[in-house]
Amino acid sequence: NNAQPLGATGSFDPALVVDGGLGYRFNRWIRAEALLSWRPDLDFSGQSNFLGPAGPNQPVSGSVSSVAGFGVAYVDLPKIGKVRPFLGAGLGVARNRIDSLNFQFPGISATSSTTTPGGSSSDLAYLLTAGISVPLSERLDLDLAYRFTDLGSVTTGPGQAQVVRP
Q1: How buried is residue 4: exposed, middle or buried, by Cβ count under 10 Å (0-12/13-18/19+)?
Q2: What is the pLDDT of residue 161?
Q3: CB-based contacts of 46: which residues, under 8 Å, 6+ apart?
Q4: pLDDT tier at 69 (50, 70, 90 boundaries)?
Q5: CB burial of residue 100 (10 Å; 0-12, 13-18, 19+)
Q6: Under DSSP, is residue 133 helix (H, G, I), strand (E, B) or coil?
Q7: Please, what is the average pLDDT of the chain?
Q8: What is the largest distance, in Å, between two alpha-carbon atoms of the chain?
Q9: In this predicted structure, what is the pLDDT of residue 1?
């Protein structure tokens, strides 16, 4: 009715991220890093937009995990006191896994739901970052940063969905 594709939109809650990286400084301004990033539990919540008797309130929930590898390049800006601000960008691949996706339809009944099977997919990933680098020794820095990361898409697998209706 609204010319939108049927599906679910929403967002992921803040979650634990475990990163490990190894980098190399090429000169005073440019450095690079190989980064491995693990997100063991990303909780998704949103709304679906199915038509018919489902009603306007159609909560959707699921849990996703992701492992991603990136190549990241950084540009170090001039020092401010003992810290050095930086900007960075990275490109890589993410392996995303969803346990299942649960659609609730309280407009039909309190127990109406559809649960899709889990699945996994690999997708292009990228990140953008900005922060400050604090030198800990001649060859070791501690980076404190904000990072935006896009891990690509996650899709459920093929198979039968469990539909519960009164």
Answers
A1: exposed
A2: 86
A3: 8, 9, 10, 11, 59, 60, 61
A4: very high
A5: middle
A6: strand
A7: 91
A8: 68
A9: 56
Q: 148 pLDDT band (50/70/90 cuts)?
A: very high
pLDDT digits (tens, 9 = 90+) for 23-59: 998 998 999 999 999 999 999 999 998 877 777 889 9
**Tally of CB atoms within 10 A around 28:** 10
Question: Counting every residue, how long is the chain?
Answer: 166
Distance (Å, whole) CA 89 – CA 2? 37
Residue found by looking up tokens 């490109």 in the block: 91
Percent of the chain at pLDDT > 70 equals 98
Beta strands in the chain (DSSP E): 8-12, 18-25, 30-48, 59-76, 84-104, 113-116, 119-135, 141-150, 162-164
